[in-house]
Every structure is written in structure tokens, then in C-alpha cells.
Amino acid sequence: MIEALQFEFMQHALLAGFLVSFAAGIIGSLIVVNRMVFLAGGIAHTSYGGIGLAVYLGLPIFLGASVFAVAAAILIAVLTLKKRHRMDTFIGLIWAVGMAIGVIFVDLTPGYNVDLMSYLFGSILAVSSEDLYFMAALLALIIFVVTFWYRDILAVSYDSEYAALRGVNVKFFYTLILILSALTVVIAIKVVGLILVIAMLTIPVYIAEKLSNSLFSMMFLSGAIATLFTLVGLWMSYTYNLTSGASIIIVSALSLGLFLLLHKKDTV
Question: What does the alpha-carbon distance between residue 206 and residue 256 come to, in Å, rounded to a whole number?
């Protein structure tokens, strides 16, 4: 693995893993405490519509996926702000329509044979310098937003009714969380793919939640855990010539199983 670091693509992969892992750790924590795990999968699959549109129009894939994902997040926010108990219905509908739109646009693109595997299971080894700039900018934005509005986001996440009584703009922060979640999902697709993105956003958070006593510590710890899983997954992928995204998730799942086993023994 050490000798692989001389290659630029591996350097990019490691940096991308670090940036995406911490973004996923922070946003994944908000997704979990807001009980919106299904949202991550919905936006991931909906963003495929943006991928297909970008391919059809000859635009950057990240741009198309981001615009589509953010639009889906805003639509979900509008539809579910007053009816969160119906969120799964709306997400399921948007999920299916987004995927269908993506497939249609890819079919309509003349002479283009898109590599579906790279979007389904990730292509972290193909991360470009432009992708890294996007990831770094998004992580910086997430850190700024969470730090600047931490108390408001905390209030909205745990008790939106109480937050509203305190004068917090619940609609704004609810929508903001969804938009940041959408953008994080898009960059996570580059690492683990749209099929596996839910696992990346939830497994490290689940472990961190059991070891933390505050939302802030859960965010930081889940980011660190996700980074560790990504590094080990990349090593396994390079050593045994496996798909990187799937390797990262397998490492995460095995680690979760070991954690649950040890945690159960401690509580006996």
C-alpha cells in the first residue's frame, strides 16, 4: 500500500476519502437524529436523474447530480415539513422518478455507453482535482454552517416544536439540513456509489452515537470512524484487487458487527 502512494490517483483517493468521510460523519449524524435515513437513499437514487441529464447535455456529472439532488431535497422539504410521517411515501416516489429520468436521458444520449457500475458502487480511484475542490468546499461549508448555527440545528433536530417556540426558523434549518444532506450524498456517491451510500452515512454514526454524549462529539467521532473505515477499505481494495466502494462498506459492516458483539459483552 505504501508504494501505491507514489501514484497521483491513490493520493487523490486518500484525500477524497478523508474529505467525504468527515462530511458524511457530520451530515450522517444529522440524518440519524432527524430520523431521515431513508432520505439518503432516496436522494442518492434521485440524483441519478441529474447524472443522466448531465450526460445528455454534456455537463460535468457532479454539477448535474448536485442540482438534481438539491432540487429533490427542496421538494422533499416542502412536501414533508408539516407531514414528516409521510416522508417515506414522498421519498419513494421521488426516488423512482429520479432513477427513471436518469435512465431515459442516458438512453437518449447518442453514442454514449455510460458505465453504470461507477455510479452504483463508486469510483474513488477516479477522483479528479476538480472533484477534490468540490469536496473540500462542501466540507468547509458544512463545518461553517454547523459551527455557526449549532444551537439552532441542535434544537430543530431534537425538538422542532420547542425550537419554533424559541423563535428558531424551523423551516429554514430543516431545508438547510436537507440541502447539505443532498450535496453530501452526491460526493459520497463518488466514493461508495449510490447503492451503498446509506451504509456510509449511518454505520459510523451508529457506532459514534453509542460512544458520544453530545451531537458535536458524535459528529467528530463518526467522521474519524468513517475515515478509518475508508482507509482500511482502500487498503483491502488495493491489496486484493476489489471494488473500492464495496470494500469500504464491507469493512464498515464487519466493524459494526464486532462493535455490537463487544458492546453486548460490556453490558452483560
Answer: 8
Give tens-digit pLDDT for 161-172. 888 888 889 889
Question: Which cell is 265 given?
Answer: 459483552
One of 2.130.10.10, 3.30.470.20, 1.10.3470.10, 1.10.1740.10 is the CATH number of 3-267, namely 1.10.3470.10
DSSP 7-67: SHHHHHHHHHHHHHHHHHHHHHHHHHHTT-HHHHHHHHHHHHHHHHHHHHHT--HHHHHHH
pLDDT in tens, 43-85: 888 888 888 888 888 888 888 889 988 998 888 888 777 666 6
Phi, psi of 195 (to 5 degrees): -75, -35
3-state SS, residue 82? coil
Torsion sign across C-alpha atoms 139, 67, 126, 44: positive
Where are the chain's structural domains?
Answer: 3-267
